[in-house]
Amino acid sequence: MRSILLGIVTFLVIVPDLAGQEWIVPDDKKGKLSTFQFDENTKKSGEKIYSVNCISCHGTPGKGNFLKLVPPPGDPATDKIQLNRDGELFYKVINGRGQMPSFKNALSSDEIWHVISFVRSFNSSYKQLIMPVITSSAYPGAVIKMMLSYNSSDSTIVLEADAVKQNSSVAVTGAEVKLLVHRTFGHLQIDDIKTTDINGKVAFKVPANLPGDTLGNIQVSARFINEDTFGSVSKDTILTAALITLPVSLVAERAMWNNVRKAPVWVILTYSLGLLTALGFIGLVLMKIRDIFIIGESVLKDSEKINIT
Amino acid sequence: MTTSHSGSTRYRERVDSVSKDILRNVRFNQGFILWMGFLTAVLAVCLFAYTIQLRKGLGVTGLRDITSWGMYIANFVFFVATSLVGMLISSVLGLIGFKWVKPIARIAEIIAVAFASIAGLIIISDMGRPDRLPNVFIYGRVQSPILWDVTVVTTYFLVSLMLWFIPMIPDLAIAKTRLNGRPAFLVKAYELLSINWVGHKKQVKTLNEAGRILLILIVPLAFAIHTVTSWLFAVTPRAGWDSSIFGPYFISGAFVSGTSAVIIAMFFYRKSYKLEKYLTDFHFEKIGRVLALVSIVYIYFNINEFLVPGYKLKTLDEIHLKELLAGEYAPLFWGVQLLGLLIPVILLLFKQFRKPLPMVVIASFVLAASWLKRYIIVVPPQAHPFLPVQNVPVEWIVYTPTLIEIAISVAPLVLALMIITILSKLFPVLPIHELAEEETLAVDGHETDLAHIDETAVYNEEKKANNN
After folding, report:
1. CB contact under 8 A, B151 and A275
2. Which residue of B has its CA nearest to A280?
3. Residue A246 CB partners (closer than 8 Å, separation 6+)
4. Chain A neighbors of B322, CB-CB under 8 A
5. Residue range B107-126, pLDDT digits in tens
């Protein structure tokens, strides 16, 4: 009874709250477009990203096998998703809602566009509109470049942003930047969002315990927060800025999950001693049965002797 | 000297009369043949069902990804549980010194041997590829409760077999000269199995020592066998299994199912083997108290098992408990708890219900409920997997045993009944020598000095007479 009530409450509260309400995307975000043409490569890359990040809830596009959540995630091949404009899809992936997580830190802008490229491949009537490369509105006509370097003396990653126009270059100042480290799943933001100084520089403090690979390398990327002002500029690079981490195999040491040769000593001892004790007593009893047999044999022999005599 | 002599004469007379009553049933009569024929026919149907499973795989059962342990494992737990009664009766009650367990001890051991020997087979029926069974031994991991279970079940079976056999050695010696008209192989078997027993003082002493070692050894072994069986469940983090009292919970439950099985067997032997003289109302009254006691202990563990998680109500426990106490499994759960535990305990508190007939009815309910209780322990906790399940047919999520599965699950019971039948038709079901001794003791007021009872002389005399 309580579960029925709970179900009704859930239906009345959550369903109209999310599923009933349109997912409104701010008008200024709706028109956002990819700066590059979707092609076979972007589709393939998008499929890969989709199968890691999206498939668990949205299912295989076209199969309708999405999770039965409230509100339902929907199949990307259907109108529910396809009737969104590119900018709306981009916004929704970036921000998330309810049970859909935000992919702000997990995927780069380009990666999200690749996913949209893959999703659009299920829509034969889709015609892509491309936005010309955003050059910075703050530095018209200039190409903004980022440089990342590691300063080992104070364990910081230093970003330097310059706007290059023809042969002259000026520092990009007052730009908010964030630094991300690539992980197996998603990205980890390092330090806070910071603003470039008058030299166009900003330093991110690297945590002392940040694990790197076997050489201490990490893959970092930096992005401007305000892409409309500074353009969709990002920088991916590998820096030797973290701890050298030698991965230890999970089956290297004695453990419950390991094979029998690497079983914990206490388990081996408990099992073996327990078994040996039981078998020892069983052996003792068998010896006693043998004794009974031998005693009987000698008694019977004697009695037969008596009978003969 | 005269008293012991007259004692030994009286003992001899008692042996004669007791063995006449008990050995009367050691024969292959028409009833035995019909009964075995019926069991064989049922077994053939079960085996046919198993050949289907063997050919087509476990897909013919209701077992799927979500509920991968079903009726077979419930059956296995029930068999292991029931076999535990051998320890309770002969060892715990026997060692405390209750004399009334003497005629029941061997019945309990027969049940222990039959149920323990079949338990392992049930596991094989739960394997899709039984040909890979040797891998359990070749690649067995000492960390795995499965290997512990194989080890303790085998050891417990061996020790139960010895506990059935060793106290029977004097009976075999007594019986071997009294088997006129029985098949020659049986006489030969008695001759061999009585291992030269002549009742010599030293033999009696050695036999008692061996018996005592086994009676003590079987206690930790029996605890191990059912605790390990409970660990098969309790070492997982699944709600409904993730419990630190699963060991004692299982053991107390095992005493309930085992004791009720012994009561049913006692009732059957009393009627069918005409042993009213030895399995008296007094014995039923006593074992009825035992059933009430172990049931109360089991109720106590039940309260612990459901009240503590019910108070904390962790999310997964809540789902499981709701399903069990008020959901899909509620009728089964409350049926089992009321008809198989609570009401039997209340009835058994009254003397008029501790009589053979009411008790066999009560015990039948308790035993059936014990089986269903294992089903409740095994199946419902699996119905709520940790990860959401999508896009699978409903029969993959909701477990329903198939007809083939039910038929295969009947086979172990048939096999156990066959073993019980054969053991009780080939060998005396009650301890002749102990019953005779007990009655002589009642008359003489002291134990018979068995050294004065020369079974050998009797044996030689009869052999001589036969030769002539």
Report:
1. yes
2. B217
3. A214
4. 3
5. 999 999 999 999 988 999 99
Query: CB of A265 within 8 Å of any CB in chain B?
Result: no
CB-based contacts of B412, cutoff 8 Å, min separation 6? B75, B79, B118, B119, B121, B122, B125
B259 to chain A, closest Cα gap in Å = 25
Report whether pLDDT(B81) > 50.
yes
Cβ distance of A296 and B195 shorter than 8 Å: yes
| A262 interaction partners in chain B (CB closer than 8 Å) | none
The chain B residue lying nearest A269, using CA atoms, is B142
- Closest residue to A284, CB basis, from B195, B200, B213: B213
List chain B residues with CB under 8 Å of A258: 143
Give the number of other CB atoms < 10 A from CB of residue A80: 13
When pLDDT is averaged across residues B433-439 and rounded to a whole number, the result is 84
Name the token pair of B459.
Answer: 């044996």
Q: Which residue, A188, A12, A23, is CA-closest to A99?
A: A23
Compute the Cα dihedral for B78, B84, B88, B89 and give only its sign: positive
Q: pLDDT, tens digit, for every residue of A54-69?
A: 998 999 999 888 888 8
Determine contact: A302 vs chain B, CB below 8 A. no
- A143-240 topology per CATH: Immunoglobulin-like (2.60.40)
- Characterize the bridge pairing of strands A168-171 and A156-165: antiparallel
Residue B21: pLDDT above 70? yes
| Third-level CATH fold of A2-120 | Cytochrome Bc1 Complex; Chain D, domain 2 (1.10.760)
Query: Can you tell me the distance from the alpha carbon of A293 to that of A288, in angstroms, rounded to the nearest whole number?
Result: 9
